[in-house]
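Posting here for the record, re: thiamine diphosphate.
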Amino acid sequence: MTVTDLPVPTVGDEHGGTALVPSADAPQTGKEFTSDQEVRWCPGCGDYAVLKAVQSFLPTLGLRRENIVFVSGIGCSSRFPYYLDTYGMHSIHGRAPAIATGIATAREDLSVWVVTGDGDALSIGGNHLIHALRRNVNMTILLFNNRIYGLTKGQYSPTSETGKVTKSTPAGSVDHPFNPVSLALGAEGTFVARTVDSDRGHLTSVLSAAVAHRGTSLVEIYQNCPIFNDGAYDALKGRDSAADAIIPLVHGEPVRFGAPAEDGRGGLGVFRRPTGEVHVDRVTPGNAGRVVVHDAHAEDPTVAFALSRLTATGEMTRAPIGVFRQVRRPTYDDLARAQVAADRERRGDGDLQALVDGADTWEVR
Amino acid sequence: MTVTDLPVPTVGDEHGGTALVPSADAPQTGKEFTSDQEVRWCPGCGDYAVLKAVQSFLPTLGLRRENIVFVSGIGCSSRFPYYLDTYGMHSIHGRAPAIATGIATAREDLSVWVVTGDGDALSIGGNHLIHALRRNVNMTILLFNNRIYGLTKGQYSPTSETGKVTKSTPAGSVDHPFNPVSLALGAEGTFVARTVDSDRGHLTSVLSAAVAHRGTSLVEIYQNCPIFNDGAYDALKGRDSAADAIIPLVHGEPVRFGAPAEDGRGGLGVFRRPTGEVHVDRVTPGNAGRVVVHDAHAEDPTVAFALSRLTATGEMTRAPIGVFRQVRRPTYDDLARAQVAADRERRGDGDLQALVDGADTWEVR
Amino acid sequence: MSARVTELDRVVIRFAGDSGDGMQLVGDRFTQEAAVFGNDLSTLPNFPAEIRAPQGTIPGVSSFQLHFADHDILTPGDRPDVLVAMNPAALRANIGDLRPGATVVVDTHDFTARNLAKAGYEASPLDDDSLADFAVHALDLTGMTVEAVKSFGLSRKDAARAKNMFALGLLSWLYGREVDGTVAYLGGKFAKKPAIRDANVTALRAGWNFGETTETFAVSYRVKPAAVAPGRYRNITGNTALSYGLLAAGRLSGLPVFLGAYPITPASDILHELSRHKNFGVTAFQAEDEIAAIGAALGASYAGHLGVTTTSGPGVALKAETIGLAVMLEVPLVIVDVQRGGPSTGLPTKTEQADLLQAMYGRNGEAPLPVVAPRSPADCFDAAVEAARIAVTHRTPVMLLSDGYLANGSEPWRLPDVAALPRIEPGFATPPDGGGSFLPYARDPETLARPWAPPGVAGLEHRIGGIEKKDGTGDISYDPDNHDHMVRTRQAKVDAVARSIPALDVDDPDGRARVLVIGWGSTYGPIGAAVRRLRRRGLDIAQAHLRHLNPFPAELGDVLAAYERVVCPEMNLGQLATLLRDRYLVDVRRLTTVRGMPFGAEQLEQELLTHIDEISQEAS
Amino acid sequence: MSARVTELDRVVIRFAGDSGDGMQLVGDRFTQEAAVFGNDLSTLPNFPAEIRAPQGTIPGVSSFQLHFADHDILTPGDRPDVLVAMNPAALRANIGDLRPGATVVVDTHDFTARNLAKAGYEASPLDDDSLADFAVHALDLTGMTVEAVKSFGLSRKDAARAKNMFALGLLSWLYGREVDGTVAYLGGKFAKKPAIRDANVTALRAGWNFGETTETFAVSYRVKPAAVAPGRYRNITGNTALSYGLLAAGRLSGLPVFLGAYPITPASDILHELSRHKNFGVTAFQAEDEIAAIGAALGASYAGHLGVTTTSGPGVALKAETIGLAVMLEVPLVIVDVQRGGPSTGLPTKTEQADLLQAMYGRNGEAPLPVVAPRSPADCFDAAVEAARIAVTHRTPVMLLSDGYLANGSEPWRLPDVAALPRIEPGFATPPDGGGSFLPYARDPETLARPWAPPGVAGLEHRIGGIEKKDGTGDISYDPDNHDHMVRTRQAKVDAVARSIPALDVDDPDGRARVLVIGWGSTYGPIGAAVRRLRRRGLDIAQAHLRHLNPFPAELGDVLAAYERVVCPEMNLGQLATLLRDRYLVDVRRLTTVRGMPFGAEQLEQELLTHIDEISQEAS
Ligand SMILES: Cc1ncc(C[n+]2csc(CCOP(=O)(O)OP(=O)(O)O)c2C)c(N)n1
Ligand SMILES: Cc1ncc(C[n+]2csc(CCOP(=O)(O)OP(=O)(O)O)c2C)c(N)n1
Ligand code: SF4
Ligand code: SF4
Ligand SMILES: [Mg+2]
Ligand SMILES: [Mg+2]
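Prediction output follows.
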């Protein structure tokens, strides 16, 4: 387990994601959030680490446990809700964001989470995902990306690298994968982040930021599937390789990483080309001042998009992690509820008899 | 009808989109491409102009008419195929890209077109669209964006501006719209362009480039619906307003527009911020050299994405048109066919009896 | 001069014109006037699938048929007595439906060579004897309108637009109807455009005056008010009544209504209507597709709202997988299918009843759910309340099968006293006494319903999903016996709904009938009309009409067995017959039409007559 | 020392262990050896829905049951004679299924307190008398394996992994089976890992030698080869046979096969299999979802390929709308539904037959299509060819209903001579003689099929779609009579398929039976076995099994009418019975199980006996 110690920014938002969720009366423990169901993932599955992290993280939110809902689709990762002693729904393949939209819009007092996989979210469920992002419904989506279909025993997924040999692609897959961060930014996502299963600290800090965000928070989690796609993220986790492979994004900080340079900070940095794209280069005393300073709060998603393109498209040899984008935009559910309230305010609570009667009636005696 | 006279770049691609489609023996006319069906759009509908443009454009391709297929979904615009005397399928809502994927993969000798609307492509059909773009299946998608559901008589669509009052949103819509170009770029689109129904010249030149591109070409067409969303693009078409509202993108050219400046070219230009985003400013002799020069062929989609953000999100007061991005990437269908061919080459044409027999057989006498 | 006045007991008028000619508005207004006057009535709007098909063509014709009478009527009428045709295409498309001797009012203004050709006429039918069977009044309605309104300074186009009001005025005069209601209506509608308002009012009055003044019509007619049950009435369409029913169900259950919908003809108007009543606490979510629409509604139900999704057949097909999930989750959900012509895109603006078997069986696995259908436009209100009652009380998705004819058709509705409607009890789960563990799949012994425990209550935290679950705990279970048990329990739970539904009403006045005609949904009107005609001939025939298609009323088997012949008219290939034959092994005879249109009462009368005849011959 | 040898006519063995223990492999190998030896056989693999549920737990148990015999058999057997249990959970999960007196071979290695607890045992069942009914052999298989392979320098974990081969060796000895085939197999499988290969071979032989050398087993057994029809045979699973059938259909029709699929258990293996045969010209497109999968397949069919889509129940639900489009377009399309436990996600790795009514009715509008089902694993080949034949010849989507039991089960297959299979004629449209205009909805008078005109042919340019179309021209038509005509024509077209299907085979040896048992799909084996048992008792019973569920064979009504009682066993709540009762008004009795498992022949025998008894009593 590599640990990248990265503070992840939280927007100080009095209208944070859980602002309307009631608080717990007493401090809670991870155990209270653990259900009595036996966990049934394969030994070594990255899902375990994420589960543990979430079980430890949830009590720190200080929310009433009964006001937390986890909704998932279908896939190995989608078994997640069973293991948490909150309200939960294990729904059908790809539809969790739609169901969660209904829950979040119906109830402002719930903290709504979606758990999904790369197949669930990006293959069959792609449309619901991009619409949730566009609408900015208040929920946190954990996208377990193991670059494979685990539950159905190993077919390639929309995030598998081109050329992937799987059961359904014995000659190698021929399609170009999605970059989930780019896709989410193109879909007008207001909070888009990435983290890694094995880095509990980073994962937890990204979760904090995601929950604090009011709107749809998409958190892509690089997750290892030891059975069907083992080692997909080894380069990001290896003792030797990780430093040069993981590009940590910290709001307000220059994007530097790798073995330290003369100034004691990462020897590699992200620089901007004159045309606006970004690339990685070695940091020298001469260019250190030109290292891109990460601004997660920029209104325009262009720079976040540029950073997303640093993700390797084939084998995962390099990827930025952290919060790419976090901007405020009114949420669908808040606005929808506000319209209901405003209409009640303006016209008074609906009078059913008056409505039924209508304007054009007549009397028969 | 405004006419913006813009040369649109064509990648000189010997493997162009129609490279494997047989050529016609003789020159053709638009009339040959006109079916005997009565056109049934409302008077003044922008679809007429696009139909006319396509009917005039198709003969210039010099392809056999019987090797052209138009597939559409459901919507006013999706009636398009009926009016062309080619092969055509008016399918079901949102699914045309999926159906076209089957056609294009099955047959390299066809020129495959998809006609769709903003609801058809971006609402119910969003998933098929982004997957077609990711896979880069060789087809040209014409997305008629009238920012409304026409056929079902005027509900808001995923491209309608926030606050839109429609039959289903009497208090105004509350969701943030998609920017189809940003979405397509986030979905790894290799050819993404935009044009306007009323500008036949521009439309035709964009179509030329789209057809020449081998892969999925997405052409967003701003189309007026005089019945349910009249004037949505008036700012881009008005005699006075158009010049300052339309930002023409021409590969290799500085992005300048508006009433001419001292150097005789557009007085407005697109400039890059130090952080990489782009914005519009007045061109002066001092800053003219810093106007962004459009590079549609940049491998990295960042700049194209940046340009897409110049599109107004609310009322359509300003928008870039032209080809945002055009890069080469192998197409799904070419690669899939190549795998079939390679396997035949390697193992010989499948021997059914041998396959059926398998390795472990026994004889009963 | 004033014409001779003749009394009639009933009249069928059809207004027909181009899609842009405002025929639906004219029809609505005439309907409203007839309703206020106290006639019984029934209407049938009919419009093209295109928004505006090319002007002047047959596919572009839009029409509105109204049947009004001095007695209780059930259908919009088979054959119009009067046709108002605003152009050649409208004449051509509708003339074949008229009864011989019918009155035809034609606006001659568009009878140009070009428009005649567009309509497929080689020569003007006004000039030859092809209309000899009818009393034709060829008038330049447009010209008279333009002339009448010229003082308002409108463009010629705008002026001509008022021709529909001229026609309405003329017909109002012909049937002795007031126009004051319409004047008031126009005042509201064009409040911000006074010139247009005044032109329309002027055209309306000019039409009336034209009838009154000229000698064009020798006779005018009167249809007396109908003697219907006392009470306050309004005219209402099925989609509006259905929307109100949903709102009422929300009130009666104390649950906020959450509608998840994706627009589709002919269901969209329910979305439109509900989105206008946010002050009732309604959330109307326009989703990205039908799957998201039902998904969100299901999520809202899970969260304690009254989840509703509204669509038509193709949308139900898309929702199938999620309906299966709802069956598994056992949460309340109302699924409204406003059926239209199928299969596939079919005839989207026409009516049909061909989704019954889809409602019953259109999902993987054994996934039963209750199915309910309204019988008339106003009945959509009661049917919606009933669907919600079953959904909430029995914790199940319920399918409500309306159709295009009910959706857009209208009839007078005796207004319910909403305070007197029975309450719907959501009975949310409460934490187990003594702090034991909560069993989300424990069952009510009577209904077999499970607890409904929306998030927010401590001690009820639980997880549910689409995988088979252990009875009681709801935990995932792959146990073979448990699966068998759960499959049968879900079926038994739906069957148990039969205990809470009213007895089937069989209309067999003298108890002598040997033929029973049984139907469901919107065929109620035509079947009832046909039955009346047969009885008027002195024949015995029994009629029963099902509100509940699943489960059937408990006594249905006995009812069917009591008749020598059972005939089932349907607008499909015989889907209810399929269910009845399977269930009761009774040789239910199919009597089907799949024309995108309701049965004609006359046609039905003839076909039923054949059955009565056959039975009498068998006996002799 | 060598044990006494006893002859048996049949044996049922079940191998059970943790998901990671390689039980499926052991089962496959034993099956292969039995097949090569010439036994008739039938298999039933059974695995958990989780990829790897937690080690040592009941949900993590994976098993493989094999029935082999010296005579023709039809099922994998009701109750095992031998259980091999590799850990406590495997013992606990399976012991209840054994017949009394059965042999139980237990690997004691994992009988630790911790593992016993995981399996829910309070004390070791090996130490008390809870297994007294069985002949238990408690052996440290793992320990012996590790010992046997220690010279290969493997890690302890890798060494222990070979224990499945040790078990296979032991059982092979017990039934006098060769292991050479398995040695060759291991050589191929581990060609690149010689140490692992050698360890496995050594463990295999050590297991064999252990049986031969020790006195653990007093008796060993022999099951002679079965006398089956002469020919070449191989063992095959249903999914493989179905895949080959699709490849064969491609060859027979001369059409490239285009598979559009989205992975789903238990259908995914068809996608895997077809994607391995690109040299047959197959395109295997893994789509983003089921809707895209069928969409692409439909597109490919439109373009002149043999479009196929493979899925399970939830996927069929999602494809419903597109299937409706295919019905409207009238193009060939094969839709394969490998049914699993439902509703919703249900029991994804278990079997069921509950999608028949979905196949028939799961779409909006009247959208009929032919439905075909295989009866056994090997029969999946023929059924796939038949589905493709109907699709291509009749220009229609066809539903092929396999199920999880057929998909993963296997049996010996007499290899067809592919050259002798009848050709499937695509008969593509050609331009009309004399250059008239092409009528895409003209119909073949016999089949009512329309022309199939893929793009690329000049003069056949045409447009089709999901809106109702005019007969002949295929132009959009809203004409009521045309719609009625087209709805009935599409139905008649499907009905016409009955003319090209073989007569129903009724197995009633003496023509004396009064009870007919009728089934479809994978119940063939258990029904056949039960029927044999009844006949062995001297009772008369007739059996018929349907390949064609829609349309039914023409003579089916007469067949049903010829018996006093018709009983229909199904793994659902009686769906075929529903179709038969509706169609023929025969009181077909439902005999149902919904346990995710095939019927047991014994259970079925008992239930059928009740019916035979009832009938005899009625007569007396
Ligand atoms: C409608 C439907 N189609 C297909 C499936 C089969 N299926 C279940 S999970 C899954 C993909 C799982 O991949 P992913 O979302 O990446 O999750 P993972 O198992 O890798 O965590 C598929 C194809 C299904 N359950 N339902
Ligand atoms: C499954 C399904 N859902 C809904 C509809 C109804 N419908 C038809 S077209 C349409 C939207 C049309 O909007 P757009 O794609 O923007 O096309 P336009 O009419 O504006 O050209 C809808 C909702 C349908 N035909 N099928
Ligand atoms: S298959 Fe992969 S993702 Fe699924 S539980 Fe096993 S290790 Fe985890
Ligand atoms: S409704 Fe709008 S988009 Fe549709 S045909 Fe009419 S003008 Fe065109
Ligand atoms: Mg995955
Ligand atoms: Mg639109």
